[in-house]
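Researcher: Quick one. two chains, 769 residues in total.
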Amino acid sequence: MNNSEKKRMNGEAEEENEEDVEDEGRDAWERTYTDERSWEALEEDESGLLQPIDNKAIYHSQYRRRLQSLSATSAASRIQKGLIRFLCVVVDLSKAAGEMDFKPSRMAVIAKHVEAFIREFFDQNPLSQIGLVIIKDGVAQSLTELGGSPEAHIKALMVKLGCAGDSSLQNALELVHDTLHKIPSYGHREVLILYSALSTCDPGDIMETIQKCKKAKLRCSVIGLSAEMFVCKHLCQETGGSYMVALDEGHFKELLLEHAPPPPALAEFAIANLIKMGFPQRAAEGSIAICSCHREAKVGEGYICPRCKARVCELPTECRFCGLTLVSSPHLARSYHHLFPIEPFTEISARQFELSRVASKTCFSCRESLLTPGAACTKCKQYFCLDCDIYIHESLHNCPGCESRRITPAAASATKS
Amino acid sequence: MLKEGAIESRLVAGPLVVTTWPRSFLLPPHSRGKLLRDFNQSTVVVGHGYASFQANRRSLISFSDDVSLLVVLIDTNPFFWSTSSSSLNFHQFVSHVLVFLDLIVRLSQLNQIVVIATGHNTCDYIYDSSLDTDQVTGEGELPALYSFVLQRLEEFVDKDEKLGAKQEGLSEKRASSLLSGSLSMALCYIQRVFRSGPLHPQPRILCLQGSPDGSEQYVSIMNAIFSAQRSMVPIDCCYVGSHNSAFLQQASYITGGVYVKPQHLEGLYQYLATVFAVDLHSRSFLQLPRPAGVDFRASCFCHKTTIDMGYVCSVCLSIFCKHHDKCSTCGSVFGKAQLDAASDRKRKASES
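Model:
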């Protein structure tokens, strides 16, 4: 008995060790059970037979629903977009961020996706600035100042990844309020909080802080990783932001990237202003100057501030000596598609598709033959496949059919009237 | 080597008349062979291509690094070609381009070309090498590629002309072509190739443009350029017009392509073969022409002059050279929080 008990205990201990060793040497077929859970990619149809989930159809229908909701809200009222944004990203690094329900840990997932978000944000809003704040041990600290260079933020975030202590929402809001209070009046002030904890330890009355933020016109949005909390919901409702809770990693990434394009801006939030900006020319090849960002001598390849003639290495930036915002015309052009968006395409029913007079049913832009009915542009009446539809609306922002037509001023005024 | 031919195009008070396209300018095969043989000795590129050709014969489905998908955008704008005073006319231009396309196809069995024509009123696909259509059998000794492309080009120019005749007469001296349309179509085609699977050739776009930039297309061309930058597709440009094209210089700079304005247009094929025939992988080993300077300054919306320092409206990002009270594009009044003041007044009225 004793021996067998001992053997069993030893066996269990050995099994645990073996499991750890096997973790590294697991075969691919074992990994499909533990990591990939391949049974989740199947569903039953009416007769009870198993079929793989048709991801493509789901993806297309999701995309269409998203487009419909976007166009409905924008058509409802003449809402302008806030193009010059000052966004503070608050990352909650309390004890709850070490939870492993997101693999490998919530913190690692947040860091990875925040890096992608920062790059996407600067891609879509080149004139905007981001500042990073972390909450740890009940205290909020500012990781980076408001700045326009993605590399600096990403580097700072990757270094400081450790979770401990409680989370304090009020401290974070106070810090963010002080930071964003100083920015010029034409900028849109936004806060994005990535909250993993289920409670908040505050030194004072958080409702007062929320009212303070509302008065300062901060638009606070929260993405929760655990469960819905009343205080976050109240904060977002008061300040006009959005509150979402992520279900899994993919959903979290989608929710985060939804904050990259400029939000619809109500006219009362920011005052329109004329901002003085400089458009520097490239320095001549082979000219030597001391650059103002690195304080070292550099040859060629830089830009010269038109007001104080200092050399800067990259654009967009603020000249360190005279404070002039320096941009180049492509940076401004990156935001033009927000101002001149293309209309969503209408979906074609199967009947319409058969009846259409188009001789060869191919997508106008990629010339792939259309097996399933796709979408058509309302203005030029050309047919496009669903993949081109998604690409055109998400990345290209030009309708190839409309661009391949020449509209004379006479015809344009005729269609308008 | 190139036989003289003539393409007459007369601008008759608006609608363009393009007369018949004589066949006499087409290159006879023996002279084309001579061109290629000359290049065989001088350039490394063709030798490299020959080695990959051998490798491809051994394993047909191996995509080595140097397989490329080249999308060529040919400018057929008759307003430009009829008024260009350079030594190159349209038929010579097309013959240079055809020999270049043949070169690309011969460099590797797996290379693909797609030709899109940029017209004045429309854009369309001319040729896709991956389609195994029953190509028109050549006229006697002409290879199928040449006669097919020529026939399709002729059909396209006719269609372009018909679409132009429907509209009222345009007497623009500097009429631009629809570059944004053909760029958008090229990018959609490249996305389709990306979707086709993990094994695909490396795509790039070559723009053979002569027409001047149309300022109404600025926003669409910039959208296309940023989309190309995100998909990592370089846009090369060989500009055969008179003054440099700012849009295409910016396009090549932003996407990492090459911009060349050849000085001697009679030797256009040599520029094409030495600079643009090189695939993306091999570009890192070669010294390709670099632009002297790209002007990124903006032009103000009121006078269209390029400015060093200006004022930008924070709502619609329009650029002005002087301080204004009201933005002419979006109508927002500067400096005054109008809606704020209005809502304050309303609140005070309701409170009292």
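Chain A has 15 helices and 21 strands.
Researcher: Thanks, that's what I needed.
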